[in-house]
Amino acid sequence: MELSVCQVTKDFGGKRAVDHVTFRLTSGVYGLLGPNGAGKTTLMKMMVDILAPSEGEICLDGVNIHELGAAYRDKLGYMPQEIGVYKNFSARKFLKYIAALKGITGRAADTKIEELLELVGLKDTGRKRLGGFSGGMLRRVGIAQTLLNDPKILILDEPTAGLDPQERIRFRNIISELSENRIVLLSTHIISDMEFIAGEVIIMRDGGVLKIGAIDQLLGEVEGKVWSAFISHEVFHKIKGRYMIGNMIQKNGGVEIRIVGDRQPPFPCEPVRPILEDVFSYYFGGNIS
Ligand SMILES: Nc1ncnc2c1ncn2[C@@H]1O[C@H](COP(=O)(O)OP(=O)(O)OP(=O)(O)O)[C@@H](O)[C@H]1O
Ligand SMILES: [Mg+2]
């Protein structure tokens, strides 16, 4: 199975939201990263055939997904960034309704729904009204809904937004479990989520692909470019703005800072092993969201 995005562009009036994007996905987990407005949601909407590209095409095993139509949708699970639910429905009823829309009914639907409520940890709340659910619980309903038709291609737009740390770990494990023989593409602003589950990362900026590669490969690119230093507040105020400062922790008598750049700073500092956040600091000046 190969999902290929070929020179895909999307214009909204005069605004180019996605600009000649090209990549190919085979089974595995791919992370889509980029600042607000980079074009992630627009690209995903084209990949699920909700939006038509202005230029270029998206193909599954060489056939345009729009031409595949229902045959493509049968293989697809999509979780939009904004999930709309019927507030008066219970999770169980909502899933049953969506299952019916996907053509899954009767015992097959009931069995699948119970299995999914269990998977996302909502078995005990399956009867409560969705109107009383927290943001994280609604995301979990969204994830369950996406999996109803056992999709081979999963496209998830910020699935971990609003999840608490425990839920986030649970979600990451669900995705890892599902990723065998499936294509999973997920977007997030939470870089550490990517480090744990994605094999490859696609970084978007201004509608285009800035970087694409395995996480280790991206880390390799900033190897030797990350330093840690403990400096006084006076020194900090002098160097602020002259260096790309990643993480920073206030400590007694000064600040511990992480610096990312091509040259070693001229004050005492030690080289440290890069993490994915440093890759972002390097390319975006620390401004990811
Ligand atoms: N329907 C639309 N009409 C006009 N402009 C749009 C439309 N949808 C998106 N855009 C613009 O396209 C650009 C990309 O938006 P998109 O939602 O794809 O970004 P994103 O990477 O998903 O951002 P975020 O991280 O905030 O979710 C933005 O400048 C946005 O304002
Ligand atoms: Mg978005």
Describe this structure in words.
The chain has helices at 40-47, 65-68, 70-73, 91-101, 106-119, 135-147, 165-178, 191-197, 215-221, 233-239, 276-284; strands spanning 3-12, 15-25, 28-33, 55-60, 63-64, 76-79, 153-157, 183-187, 200-205, 208-214, 226-231, 244-251, 254-260, 270-271. The chain is 34% helix and 29% strand. The model has no long low-confidence stretch (mean pLDDT 91). It is globular. With 289 residues, it is an alpha/beta fold. Adenosine-5'-triphosphate is lined by residues 12, 15, 17, 34, 36-42, 81.
Integer average pLDDT:
91
**For the CA atoms, what is the radius of gyration?**
22 Å
Helix/sheet category: alpha/beta
What strand order characterises the main sheet?
6-7-8-3-9-10
Give the end-to-end Cα distance, rounded to a whole number of Å. Answer: 32 Å
What CATH architecture of the largest domain would you give? Answer: 3-Layer(aba) Sandwich
The helix/strand series, from N terminus to C terminus, equals EEEHEEHHEHHHEHEHEEHEHEEEH
- Integer count of domains: 2
The low-confidence parts are none
